[in-house]
Amino acid sequence: MRSSIAFNFSITLVLAVISVSPFFYRNISDYVLLLSFLIWFVSAVSSKSIKFRITKKNIFCLWWIGYLVWQFLMTIIGHSESSPNLIIVRSPIFCIPIIMSIILASYNTKEVKLLVKFLFIIVSLNVISNVIIGIQNPDVFQTLNLIDKSDADYHTNAGSTSFVGLCLFFIPVCLFCRKNVQNIVIRFLLFIMIVLSLWFVVVINARGTAFFMLTLLLLGYFFVNREVKKNRSKGYYISFICILGLLATLVLIPSLQFLSEIFSESEGMAARMSTRFNDIVSLVEEGGDIDAMNEGSFFKRILLWQASITTFLSDIPNFLFGIGEDIHEADMYSLIKAGVGGHSEFFDCAAEYGLVGVIFMYEMISSIFSYMKNLSTDRIIRGQVIVVEIVFVLYSFMNNSLLSDQLFVIFFMMPLALYVIENDTTRAFVR
Q1: Number of compact structural domains in the chain
Q2: Residue 134 and residue 200: Cα distance in Å, rounded?
Q3: Rounded CA gap, 142 and 365, in Å?
Q4: DSSP annotation of 429
Q5: For labelling alongside 363, which of 65, 134, 222, 279 has CA 20 to 30 A away?
């Protein structure tokens, strides 16, 4: 490793540890992450090896910076009631993709490869830690969701909803690398991490949204792996997807009922999945009438989505510019009263920042995934990145997704891994 980037490399690892570790996520002040980012920035500016350059390839950086600046301006003019300090403290999260771009433009392949190895270790240790916690104390993942959680719940490394999202998107990163790496030991370790991440998402800290997104992710991944090599026409794929969608509607209810029976025999978070499946069955059978549903978690989530959509479509000013960001309590009544449900990244963006925010969000997501696809010349990998993009978009409609741990895996770790797979010259990866 070059001495000119050694300190910047170290601070990058510090940012990763703070961002992806649930313990630090809950217990360390956001100002610590901000300070770490400022140190990283100063180390990058002071290094002759670090390049700051915006080109057509990394134009996504302007959209991420622009959205952050737009949020800040909305607080300055009073459109958003939240403090400008809140936006400043949040800035390192929105700069994660930008840091990734700077690193890929500045580090050599060996340095990027070493960084990816350390990132895998950091994420893997957190996944292993959560699996162990889930075995020893499975109920902790339920109490983490309660407003009146105890100090003991804060002082654990058990991950909540955002960490489930991290594991969800860590799986395709492992799949990318495992398919292309030659070393048998590394392939085995990646397989173990895939299994542990699956176990965490499906059993230990089971969430309905993550379960369905995981199913779609794996189906899409293996479909692309099987079909892309055959050079099918677009018409073939369109027909195949339509037929598959029709079949899915026919087997949806029986499949959900079958899954409900399986999960009903489980304990802890997995047992709650049975209720989620039954709620979806009720919603489908009643033709989308939510009044016929039980007032459970899924019912409340739909109401919160509706709150944001209603705000967005309520009048022309709200449609164009939203109502801004506000600080309020996180209970359901306060969220609905405020008009922003707080349970969907995209719906909440539309409610808070209107059409302007929607345009920013669209350009941010589409441009960075375009950048990621261009990191590889392999058609299968590019197709699988598209699958990740589709899953991320759907996930963002149903959950908050612009969180430090998830972004670090999707828009930092994944692009670096794709770059190493494409550019490694040590024959560690299969060509």
Answers
A1: 2
A2: 8
A3: 31
A4: B
A5: 222
